[in-house]
Structure formats: structure tokens, C-alpha cells
Amino acid sequence: MWDAIVTAYDWFVALMVTFKVTDVLDIVVVSFIIYNLIKIVRETRAEQLVKGILILLIAFAASSIFKLKMLYSLFTSFFQFSVLAILIVFQPELRRALEQIGRSKIGKYWNNLSQSNGIEEEKIKQIKRGIKCVVEAAADFQKSKTGALIVFERETKLGDIIDTGTIVDAEPSVPMIGNIFFNKAPLHDGAVVMRDGKIYAAGCILPLTKNNSSVSVDLGTRHRAALGISENSDAIIVVVSEETGTISMALNGVITRNYTRETLNVALEEQLIPKSSEKSDRIPIITGIASLRKGKKNEKDKK
Question: How far is 166 from 118, CA to CA, in rounded Å?
Fold first, then answer.
């Protein structure tokens, strides 16, 4: 026992002698990567796939320990193509991870470098006009209980979503938005995509959220579509319920509800108008808005 303790101590001392600052950095980076990988696969279908891979690895180790030659050779052949298999099986999660990296602070800094003077004043005015029209239209829809789904594109371009609809590329107005979502209109079932404050496309088809088990049963197809696109991009989505007239907003895989004309306008401007002193990717905290992620309603008060 004493010999084991001495050996372990000698090994520890020898390790500390060769330990460098770069080793600390290496450990921190690897830990950060592993932590974020766990966050990506947690509460998704990928979690079950990871469990399946771990079971295969345990079986592979057991076949080696107990000298099961046929099973060992089978697993060896299988794991030769494991890298390619992982890329195929985890393609949605890998794409999501790369998109999150692109939307990180580093990605935003890179994007800012490509713009000489940031967003021009005229562009900001156009975005404000678009926000005002959407807010007024949403207030009208709330009274008439007209269903609507409006997506504000931000840094993540939604070209693949736009391709599923009809290009409009028009100046926004309350009557135009009202006509698009009129229940007899051909484009009313899809989503409107706003780009730089303009109505760029209508009748677009959005992907539904894959986390159905964690979404409240009160949410319909429009809300699930809003969650789905918000999980795969940094877009901001405004939803008006056809059943209740409730105005909701989805951002970063979270949906908040019970907006009024005033609170919706404030929330959209906070998120879409760039401000150097504020972080644009925060979820707005507004009185009377309840978060419905995982079926729970949490009231938040803005001070």
C-alpha cells in the first residue's frame, strides 16, 4: 500500500515538473469543446445515438478482453468507417454547432469587419418602418384573430427558406401584410420573410421544431414552425394565433407570449436595431410575457 502511494506521488511530482502553461490552455479548450458538445446533444435525438455508440464501444472492449475474435474483427471493420458514419448520422447537430459558432461573438466581430461603417442610417430607418408595419398589422390580427407568421432575417441568411415561397421584395405596409394573411389569399398559410425591413418573400415553409416533447401542448403548428426556424438560425419570428389572437415571439429556440402593440414594438427594436451598449441576442424581458418552453409559464418583469 505504501509503495503504491510513493509511486503515485513520484508520478505526480514528475508530471508537475513537465507541466506547462500550454498544457493548462489545452485542458481548458478541450473541456470547453466537450461541454458544448454535451449541450448540443442534450435533450435531442442525438442523445440516444450517443448512448448507442457508447454501448457499441463497451461491447467492442469486452470482445477484446474476452478474446472473442469474430466479434472483435466485426467491430474493427465497423469502426474503420466510424468517422464517416458519425458525419452522416450527426449531420443536423454538426450543422447546428457550426451555425452557433458563426453566430458567436467571434462570428459577429468578423461580420462587423466586413462592413465599413456598420449598418447605414437609411437601412436602420427602413428596418424601423418594417417593424412599425408588422406591429400595426399584428395588432389588427390580434383583434380579428387572424393567424400570421412573420420572420425577421438577421445575420443567418434564409435563402433555403425563401426558395420555398414567392419573392415579393416590396416596401412594407399594413394593408399589404393584411392581404398576404387574408384567409382566402394563396400565400396566407406560409410565412413572410422580412429582410432589411422589407417584405422579401411570402408563403414560405418553415421547418417544425424537433423538440416536440419539450413544447407546450398549447402551441399549434405556426408556433412550432416559429420555434423550428429559431432553433436553426438567429431569426426573430412574430406569431399571431388564429385561435386566441395572442401575439408571440420566438428567438433562439424559446417562445414568449402575450405581447401588446407597445411591448412588441419595444422587443423588436431591441433585437433588430444595433446598439453598441446592448447585446442583441438577449431575449427581451417585458411585463406580461410568459415563456412557454418545456410547457412552463414563467412571468418576467422588465424594470
Answer: 30
